[in-house]
Structure prediction request, 112 residues.
Amino acid sequence: MTDPAPCPQCNSALAYPTGQSMMCPECGHEWNPDEVTAENAPKIVKDANGNVLQDGDDVVMVKDLPVKGAPKALKAGTKVRNIKLVEGDHNIDCKIEGFGTMALKSEFVKKA
Prediction:
């Protein structure tokens, strides 16, 4: 038998099952363990072709993207090295030669 997961609210290890849910005797919090594990699951980031991206991957731009405050757009085919995945709408942080640090959307790149 596996040990029950700790309470997500107070981290008490004394949580016990109550049918379909779990209950914490210390803070009184009740939760569904299936929902908690789904919320804590890592987010999967996919490129324009549906390939899964990871930190440190190299990607290529698939579309010309205008950059606010820059005299020219990022051209399709521009290679971006060593990306970092982050939370949010623009889920890739990177450094592009000639532009500096940028935040990109994963839907406009493909894995190199």
Observations:
- Residues 83 and 94 are 5 Å apart (CA to CA).
